[in-house]
Specification:
4-stranded antiparallel sheet; 39% helix; globular
C-alpha cells in the first residue's frame, strides 16, 4: 500500500536566509550554510543570526530535499558529506522520517518514482515544487529490515559508481597527457 510522505515524515521548509542574515540586526555568528549545485550538496560559511531556531539546522536522521529542479535529496548521518548543525535555507525541505530509514528515504526521493510524481507538480520556467507537493509524494514502504537490506545494496552500488567515475576521470587525464606529449608539451 502506498503512503504519502507526510504520513511517514515531518516536513518543514528551511530558514529564510535574508531574514536571518542580511535583514537581521541582532548578534550574528559565522556558521556553515547548505547549498546545492545541480545535484551536489556543499556548505559555505555565512553570517547568520546567533539565535536561529535549531529546527533550521541539519540533524542526524534528517533528509534534506532540494525544491528546485533537479530535485535531489541527501540524508544526514555520521558518515555523510554534510555534517550536523548546518543551516538549511528555504530552498530545501527538511524531512524527518518516522520509522523509515533516512538513507532509504533519500534514495526513494532521488529515484524516478519520485521524479515522475514531481513532474506533475512542477510549474514555471524554474521547476520548483512546494512543501504541499512534497507532502503528496507516494511510496511503498517495505519493512525496516527490508529497507536496511536495500540500503546495504545501494551503498555498494554507490561505491562502484564512485570508483567508475574516478576511473573515467583518470582515463581522461591520461588521454590528455598523451595528446599533449604528441605535441611536444609536457
Amino acid at each position: 500500500m502506498k503512503v504519502s510522505l507526510d504520513q511517514i515524515a515531518q516536513i518543514s521548509i528551511g530558514a529564510s536566509l535574508s531574514r536571518y542574515s542580511k535583514k537581521y540586526e541582532g548578534e550574528k555568528q559565522e556558521i556553515d550554510v547548505l547549498y546545492c549545485t545541480v545535484n551536489e550538496f556543499y556548505t559555505k560559511k555565512g553570517d547568520i543570526a546567533k539565535d536561529i531556531d535549531s529546527k533550521y539546522l541539519t540533524q542526524k536522521g534528517d533528509v534534506i530535499f532540494k525544491l528546485s529542479e533537479p530535485q535531489v535529496a541527501i540524508n544526514i548521518d555520521e558518515n555523510g558529506e554534510i555534517p550536523e548543525n548546518v543551516v538549511v535555507s528555504s530552498k530545501f525541505a527538511i524531512v524527518k522520517p518516522i520509522d523509515v530509514d533516512s538513507t532509504f528515504l533519500a534514495e526513494l526521493l532521488n529515484s524516478n518514482i519520485a521524479r515522475n510524481q514531481i513532474l506533475k507538480f512542477s510549474e514555471g520556467v524554474i521547476k520548483q515544487i512546494k512543501k504541499s507537493d512534497v507532502e503528496k509524494l507516494k511510496f511503498e514502504i517495505p519493512s525496516i529490515d527490508e529497507q536496511e537490506e536495500y540500503v546495504e545494496t545501494i551503498k555498494l552500488i554507490n561505491k562502484e559508481i564512485a570508483l567508475q567515475k574516478k576511473l573515467i576521470s583518470e582515463n581522461m587525464n591520461l588521454k590528455e597527457a598523451i595528446i599533449q606529449k604528441s605535441q611536444g608539451e609536457e
